[in-house]
Amino acid sequence: MPLLIIDALNIIRRIHEAVPGEDSEVKVADTITSSLASFKRALKTHRPSHAVAVFDHGGRTWKHELYAPYQANRKPMPSLLREGLQTIKQELQHLGLHWIAIEGIEADDAIATLVEKWCLASPDQVTILSTDKDFLQLLSDQVCIYDHFKGIWRDQAYVIEKFGVKPSQMGDLLALMGDAVDGVPGVSKVGAKTAAELLRINGHLERVISNADKVTGQVGANLRKGVEMARLSRKLVSFKTDVPLGLTWKMLAQNSGVSHGE
Q1: Which residue range or ranges hold the 5'-3' exonuclease domain (predicted)?
Q2: Range of the domain at 216
């Protein structure tokens, strides 16, 4: 009886970017049609007992309070697409797919909270539908991540091959290397390969920091200078899981009588 969590804007934004042409009502209409088809396909493919689509609420979150430049360079959502989200949300209700958007936190936080609560309540699998690398931190025997566009599971083998670390080290990797898209600073001049090598040697971020004086050259100098930024970045790539979502599992139960366009 698995739970399916859909990172809604991850799906919608990717589809919108793939639709050719400048932003227009026609492009948004195509995005809406394709997005709803994707949501239907996800329900049909994974056949969950419970499902939810999680949206960003928008506006400032606790991460902006922590670090003002957080996501400052992220391109704002086109206004026509933002209006189109209302249509998508209405249609999701007709599909029998519950959606949420919680003020003050990111969709990532709500998704991590759902994962944590599900794993405490049930031994069954939870699948996150997203291409966001931040979720790779959550991978476990019970928590799975599915790339809806490529039709592949992003499992431990994928993480080790692509990033050179285990899923449990992904948060520390992101803290060291930073993330330009989200404005997570990381440590200056420490890229993915260097960060992975440091974690292979030390195991986790705090040990990397405590052994920074043993690292020679520019990397060592940057590490010693970047201790506070590394710790700040670690917080920025973590999840807040103590905010009430206003949900019950019953609200997310999939009614077998509801058509998903099969």
Answers
A1: 1-255
A2: 165-236
